[in-house]
Automatic annotation (TrEMBL):
The keyword Protease does not apply. Belongs to the enoyl-CoA hydratase/isomerase family. Pfam families: ECH_1. This is Enoyl-CoA hydratase/isomerase family protein. It comes from Mycobacterium vicinigordonae. GO terms for molecular function: isomerase activity. Keywords: Isomerase. Residues 238-260 are annotated as: Disordered.
Length: 260
């Protein structure tokens, strides 16, 4: 188990092959600053390189918000870089930017605003509590909203719904059940069951053969950027790599069926 006091802005625990990253600036609505971005990046690198970790959960402390984007009080920290060397903070915050091919589950609650979508867009799937609301404050501040809604489009959220989110500011909010309908989340749970449900799903995935799970994640993530014929070739190569040595039996390696 990893010491949760090793960081200032997040908590990081590893238990039974599951890593849990918890955003821990509740007094700032879990908005991210440079320190949080760097700490999150370190956690994603650890998650990628530690073979004992098979699944990751990203969640947040506090009652009001999962994350509300960048800490506007502290502002951008990359302006001193030459303009063409500047990187979007999503490069630090997103697991896939760090080549984490282990499944990531986002457990969302409260306000999920603006740059919070960096976490959501690179999770493999998300669940949320009933009180969750999604909105984008960029328009209120008079600044362009581009990278976060682009990620939503890549997830398959309909263009019109993405543009309503990006253009109508914080006045219009997507509810948990609308998010479920749009495909932003895969399940809505009571507020007091969010973290336990995420842990339950993570534990179930962690019990599977990791080579099969990670090969599936990488094949599917990379397929989003590839023409179908190239994606099929990539998928076949990951099938050959990930299936080597597999000796399981799907008739016995399963639990009682359930529906959702």
């Amino acid at each position: 188990m990893t010491d949760p006091t090793a960081f200032e802005t997040i908590e990081f625990l590893v238990r039974d092959h599951v890593a849990t990253l918890t955003l821990d600036r509740p007094d700032k609505l879990n908005s991210f600053n440079q320190r949080m971005a760097n700490e999150v990046a370190e956690v994603w690198r650890r998650t990628r390189d530690d073979e004992e970790i098979r699944v990751a959960i990203v969640q947040a402390n506090g009652d009001r918000a999962f994350c509300t984007g960048i800490d506007v009080g502290e502002g951008k920290w990359w302006d001193h870089e030459p303009i063409f060397n500047q990187e979007d903070p999503g490069v630090l915050l997103g697991p896939k930017a760090h080549r984490v091919w282990k499944p990531v589950i986002a457990a969302l609650h409260g306000m999920v605003a603006g740059g919070a979508m960096y976490f959501v867009n690179e999770a493999d799937f998300s669940i949320c509590s009933e009180s969750t609301v999604f909105f984008d404050p960029h328009a209120n501040a008079g600044i362009v909203s581009a990278l976060e809604p682009m990620g939503m489009l890549a997830r398959g959220v309909p263009y019109g719904d993405v543009m309503r989110w990006a253009l109508l500011g914080s006045e219009e909010r997507i509810t948990a059940h609308t998010a479920l309908r749009l495909g932003l989340v895969t399940e809505v749970v009571p507020d007091d069951q969010l973290h336990s449900r995420a842990a339950e799903l993570a534990d179930e995935i962690a019990a599977r053969r990791p080579q099969a799970i990670q090969g599936t994640v990488r094949a599917m993530w990379e397929a989003r950027d590839l023409p179908p014929s190239v994606a099929e070739r990539h998928g076949m190569s990951y099938t050959h790599l990930g299936n080597a040595g597999a000796d399981g039996d799907s008739r016995t390696n399963k639990r009682a069926p359930r529906t959702r």
